[in-house]
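Predict the 3D structure for this chain.
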Amino acid sequence: MEGKDIAEVIKEALAQTLVFYYPFAGRLKEGANGKLIVECNSEEVKFIKADANVTLQQFGEPLQPPFPCFKELLFDVPGSQAMLNGPLLLIQVTRLKCGGFIFSLCFNQVTCDATGLQQFMSAIGEMA
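Done. Predicted structure below.
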């Protein structure tokens, strides 16, 4: 992976993974009788690339909350906090000046549980 843009590598791995986990690219809608359904309409996962003028060492040792600049590690996309019609998954890759990166995500917990999210994240890692 040396010499490659980590954000682009992850974005490509995400695209490959979404072939199998396509509901994450849909939107939550209200169906008959008020039931929530995932409309698989390929509206997309929100993916953000960012750069930060900090190093991993500046976050402290050991790495534990509270983190400085925590709010900047996951951009607040308008509409992403809405239960209905918003993106079900938001991913941000922030490249650090030391060459490291921070992978952040926000997902609608209606779409899967922790085990499902872990499987999805593992699949992205395998594709990368």
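The CA atoms of residues 95 and 126 lie 20 Å apart.
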